[in-house]
């Protein structure tokens, strides 16, 4: 299994600081949520952890500095589910999920038995096996989100980074998605995901990071991070907490 460590990571885009001096270590077997308002730098931070945007500071994946790894090596170690991916080619769902096996293939090699088994496991886990023969560009937004999650799962990497994996999903499939991510962490993998749903992050994650204006303003267990004061300071909202023996947080009102 693999860990990811960020030391004083910063990102500027078009001359504007987007991520500012963020340091954090992410260990195998943990489910870490990254929260924050729109424009806080969440997506940019996870892209920096993968070397997809130029960044200052240091990122290590396992023992290796990020800059010492090839794109293929990174992709084998860390599966990535970006947000809002557009599909342009009329591939079948099964062939789209099969793209998750590309980091394991050499040029001109064919998908083998092990790859087919990984694809089948991923599709069953995401409950999209019944969509296998459908054309991916003809799916609904929610179906497409589940298929793209299956593609990331098919990598069978030691870590998974997902950026807003619950977008477009109905409540039942949101819960299913969180159960899948929780299960990946429980199996020993590192799971790092960007969320906007405070309640689901509170319920399922081991640890939460909160960004505001590019800075890391909170890092710790959900019940110590999502406090009334933090929600007021970062989101400008009030919320209700507690309920039936579970960690719950329900946004109530904007503060004016």
Automatic annotation (TrEMBL):
Keyword annotations of the record: ATP-binding, Nucleotide-binding, Translocase, Transport
PROSITE patterns on file: ABC_TRANSPORTER_1, ABC_TRANSPORTER_2
Keyword check for Nucleotide-binding: yes
Sequence ranges assigned to domain ABC transporter in this UniProt record: 4-238
Xref: InterPro entries: AAA+_ATPase (IPR003593), ABC_transporter-like_ATP-bd (IPR003439), ABC_transporter-like_CS (IPR017871)
Gene Ontology terms for molecular function: ATP binding
Pfam families referenced in this protein's UniProt entry, alphabetically: ABC_tran (PF00005)
Function comment: Part of the ABC transporter complex HmuTUV involved in hemin import. Responsible for energy coupling to the transport system.
Protein name stated in the entry: ABC transporter ATP-binding protein
Organism: Stakelama flava
